[in-house]
Amino acid sequence: MEKISHRYVIQYFHLKGLSPTNIKAELDSTLGESAPSFTTVKYWVAEFKRGRTSCQDEHRSGRPNEVTTPEMVKKIHKMVLDDRRLKVRELADMVGISKSAVHRILTENLDMRKLCARWVPRLLTMEQKQRREDVSIECLAMFHSNKAEFLRRFITMDKTWVHHFTPETKEQSKQWTERGESAPKKAKTVPSAGKVMASVFWDARGIIFIDYLQKGKTINGEYYANLLQRLSDEIKKKRPHLAKKKVLFHQDNAPVHTSVIAVAKINELKFELLPHAPYSPDLAPSDYFLFPNLKKWLGGKRFANNKEVESAVDGYFEALDGSHYKQSIEAIEHRWEKCVELKGDYVEK
User: Fold this and answer.
1) Cβ atoms of 76 and 127 closer than 8 Å
2) Are residues 283 and 139 in the same domain?
3) pLDDT (tens digit, 9 = 90+) per residue, 76-118?
4) Which residue(s) pair with 206 in the sheet?
5) Which residues contact 105 (CB under 8 A, 6 or more apart)?
6) Are 21 and 42 in contact (CB under 8 A)?
7) Left if phi > 0, otherwise alpha if psi is -120 to 50, otherwise beta: which for 308?
8) PANTHER family, alphabetically (predicted)?
9) Which of 175, 190, 255, 312 is 20 to 30 Å from the Cα of 296, by its Cα?
């Protein structure tokens, strides 16, 4: 069915007293995917309400660029602001000009472009953005007061699931092909059900220790407090330069980390807790560096059991050059600065 026919049907249902929502439902039930959008239906109902009787496009004379009037630019701009998912075809249908003219108005006159939405961990409220900005400013002040000392004292931790099988990323599946050769195909795969939880404690020098959660156990406040005690013991053995220094400890705001017993253990060990804003994986070195690189390395590898997984993860971290850890933690300075610049919004790179 052509667009003119759609308009006649919309006009018919409008005269019968149907609302735009009911008209859209009728069209969907008959035309399926070829039905006009709800925005188109709503537009034409509004046109008929204001007295329009013709379903034909309004007469346009002169050269194509003559449709680019200030009134037309303003009209299209308002439509796009009302519904940012409108297609060029739908706009052209509603305003009665060619698709190329609509595209020219959007890109040249309005300087607009259509982008896919980017995934973020959470749609932040103004209060959450303000908290992220405030924490970033506070952390930057600590970092700039003595960068060398900050890096010497800084220790971070986080947890991640490591699967017995982790699918390759799309980037990893790239292959060289000859001109004219079709793209390689690959069946979609999902991570295996078998997995183990790894709690990783590390700093600018490397991994301090990794705890692998035993099957049947869960991480609660008491379990985490024991991990903190173990961290203190490992620091004495592996980081002797911290013997007379106060550890600057970084963790996220997971409930187990902020439980009464965990906070009491942090105070008992005399760790200085670095502030971390809620919903901020982009400001956590484990989340923006350590774990993504680990998962990429694991892509396509299969393991028979938890012991094989643990051995592989340990081997991966042991093989990393020490500079990788230092550079990743130093990168947090840029991320705090970017967070402040973005008024608390998420940092991509």
Assistant:
1) no
2) yes
3) 999 899 888 888 988 988 888 888 899 989 988 999 988 887 7
4) 203
5) 68, 72, 73, 76
6) no
7) alpha
8) MARINER MOS1 TRANSPOSASE-LIKE PROTEIN
9) 255
Could you give the number of structural domains in the chain? 2
Q: Residue 7 is part of which domain span?
A: 3-109
If you search the block for the tokens 């194509």, which residue do you land on?
64
Q: How far apart are CA 42 and CA 47, in angstroms?
A: 9
Residues 275 and 312 in one domain: yes
Backbone phi, then psi, for 93, in 5-degree steps?
Answer: -65, -40
Which residue's entry shows tokens 């869960």? Answer: 218
Q: What is the DSSP letter of 183?
A: P
Q: Which residue has the tokens 């069915």?
A: 1
Residue 143 or residue 34, greater confidence: 143
Please report, for residues 171, 177, 183, 186, 237, the alpha-carbon distance to residue 174 in angstroms, rounded to integers and kept in the order given. 6, 9, 9, 10, 44
Rounded distance, CA 348 to CA 119, Å? Answer: 10
